[in-house]
Amino acid sequence: MKKLFRLPLLALALASASLLTASCSKDDSDSLAVQAHDQNAMMSIMHDMMKKMDAMPKTQDPDQDYSMMMVMHHQGAIDMSELELKDGKDPQMRDLATRIIAAQKAEIARFNTFLAGHKIETPLVPAFNARQKMAMEKMMRANDLRVITGNTDRDFAQLMQDHHQSAIETSQAILDLGRHAETKALGQQIIDSQMMEIKEMQEWLLKNKGY
Fold it and tell me: Where would one find the signal peptide in this protein (predicted)?
């Protein structure tokens, strides 16, 4: 009686293993390839950008520190977008990269103009730097949790979302703690435009995630 009971179970187990093997070995557009983070060019840009921002001297003047930091942060987005234009193939993501480069170069110019005419002001506001640091650390944790595929279009869409989100959170901090109309206007512009771009990347990934 026991032998008769075991045979169907054994057959079921073998059938399940066969189906799992076939599924895992499937080599088509639904399969998921993974690339080590330290081998990914997009991730390298993110880490290099973070090192530069960490090394930036903090003045505790929110408008000064926001402007200096966003120049570095925007340059990271430009570098990632240029890599997308170099290696990416999807027309929509390439178009987005072109738009990001144009918008963020223009914003860098406005930040630099502000910095050229600005003198550090008191009272100091250390709360801004605390919020900025929190946003950037959150960005890098989110990046490190991403499944990186080595597909430039997908990696760009994934990592740029985290990059944009940190800019949005830091820009909200300048709206709350900043003192100057120009930095606040730039902060609101960044929030509005990058929220729309995050939505575009999310919708694209839902259609093109590859698994």
Answer: 1-22
Give the sign of the dihedral formed by CA 86, CA 162, CA 43, CA 79: positive
Which DSSP state fits 58?
P
pTM over 0.85: no
Query: For residues 63 and 121, is the Cβ–Cβ distance under 8 A?
Result: yes
Tens-digit pLDDT profile for residues 116-172: 999 999 999 999 999 999 999 998 898 888 888 889 999 999 999 999 999 999 999
Q: How many CA atoms lie within 13 A of 3 on its CB side?
A: 0
How far apart, in whole angstroms, are the C-alpha atoms of residue 152 and residue 40?
9
DSSP codes, 119-150 = ---SS--HHHHHHHHHHHHHHHHHHHHS---S
Q: How many CB atoms lie within 10 A of CB 183?
A: 24
Q: Is 197 a domain residue?
A: yes
Domain count, the chain: 1
Q: How far apart are the C-alpha atoms of 3 and 164, rounded to whole Å?
A: 62
Q: Domain containing 71: what range?
A: 34-208
- Cite the DSSP H helix spans in 25-61: 41-55
Report the distance separating Cα 162 and Cα 164, nearest Å.
5
Residues in the chain: 211
